[in-house]
């Protein structure tokens, strides 16, 4: 009897080995697996975005600091020129910093996200919005003139945070809060307060770059 | 019809392959970054990466940045092909193609 059982087990094993084991998935399992892939890609893209955005934010924190220091030290008629030069440096620097990421996307064979074009478009929209708001509202209080860009930047980052990547929401909220604190608590030295608030932007940039 | 790959289909291995496949044109991601993307634990990620490496789907790169040891992973051409085929299989299944 034992011999018979052994022979049967052996025969069963041989039969099993000879069979090609084919994995069969249901439609639901396949859909769930595709959703997993999509979610992983989304998470990867967000982290990649943080890594690209981090150094750009650090660059803009320096520009921000120099711009507000200029507003604190230079006469008001030179503010516009100072900001124009600094903004140009910031835009060119941002484009340069985005290049490696664009190259990597092209090398992977994936469809380009046109990040550079989108960034230029976003900056142009922000610039036009700030200039239009100044033109329409014509703030006479220097403190309002100084605080407006801070609130604007805070709002833009917060909006990006709500719709695209969560970390920007925290960065926007910090910029918004720092600007309001400076506006109400230190209006006499607001330019220097805003310049020192750039440390917050720089730290945020490091936080993003390390994501 | 494309073929299923039972090695890749395991949920965490599928996420690892998806992450590495997307990153294949750039700098290979570090272990910590891969952990964030896949939301895996250290041990889990390590063991599944080893399984994929043994299958020839993934290459593990170990070096040092200064004094800090660094582990990175990248998808091989065999792995990329297997992943593409597996995704094609999943799509065909969902779309009901025989």
From TrEMBL, chain B:
Pfam families: HTH_34. InterPro entries: WH-like_DNA-bd_sf, WH_DNA-bd_dom, WH_DNA-bd_sf. It comes from the Bacteria. Residues 12-94 form the Winged helix DNA-binding domain. This is Transcriptional regulator. It comes from Caulobacter endophyticus.
């Amino acid at each position: 009897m034992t011999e018979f059982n052994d022979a049967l087990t052996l025969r069963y094993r041989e039969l099993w080995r000879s069979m090609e084991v084919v994995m069969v998935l249901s439609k639901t399992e396949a859909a769930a697996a595709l959703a997993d892939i999509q979610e992983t890609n989304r998470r990867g893209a967000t982290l990649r975005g943080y890594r690209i955005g981090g150094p750009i934010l650090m660059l803009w924190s320096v520009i921000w600091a120099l711009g507000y220091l200029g507003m604190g030290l230079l006469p008001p008629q030179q503010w516009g020129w100072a900001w124009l030069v600094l903004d140009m440096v910031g835009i060119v620097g941002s484009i340069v910093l985005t290049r490696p990421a664009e190259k990597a996307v092209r090398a992977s064979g994936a469809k380009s996200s046109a990040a550079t074009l989108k960034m230029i478009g976003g900056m142009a929209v922000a610039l036009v919005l700030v200039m239009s708001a100044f033109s329409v509202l014509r703030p006479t209080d220097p403190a309002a003139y100084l605080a407006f860009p801070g609130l604007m930047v805070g709002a833009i980052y917060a909006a990006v945070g709500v719709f695209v990547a969560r970390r920007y929401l925290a960065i926007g909220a910090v910029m918004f809060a720092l600007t309001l604190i400076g506006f109400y608590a230190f209006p006499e030295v607001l330019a220097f307060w805003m310049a020192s608030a750039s440390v917050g932007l720089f730290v945020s940039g490091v936080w993003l770059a390390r994501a | 019809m494309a073929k299923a790959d039972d090695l890749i289909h395991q949920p965490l291995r599928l996420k690892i392959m998806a992450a590495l496949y997307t990153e294949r044109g750039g700098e290979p991601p570090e272990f910590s970054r891969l952990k964030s993307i896949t939301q895996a634990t250290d041990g889990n990620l390590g063991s599944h990466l080893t399984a994929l490496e043994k299958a020839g789907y993934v290459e593990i790169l170990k070096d040092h940045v200064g004094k800090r040891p660094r582990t990175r992973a990248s998808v091989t051409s065999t792995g990329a092909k297997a992943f593409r085929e597996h995704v094609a299989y999943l799509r065909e299944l969902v779309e009901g193609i025989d």
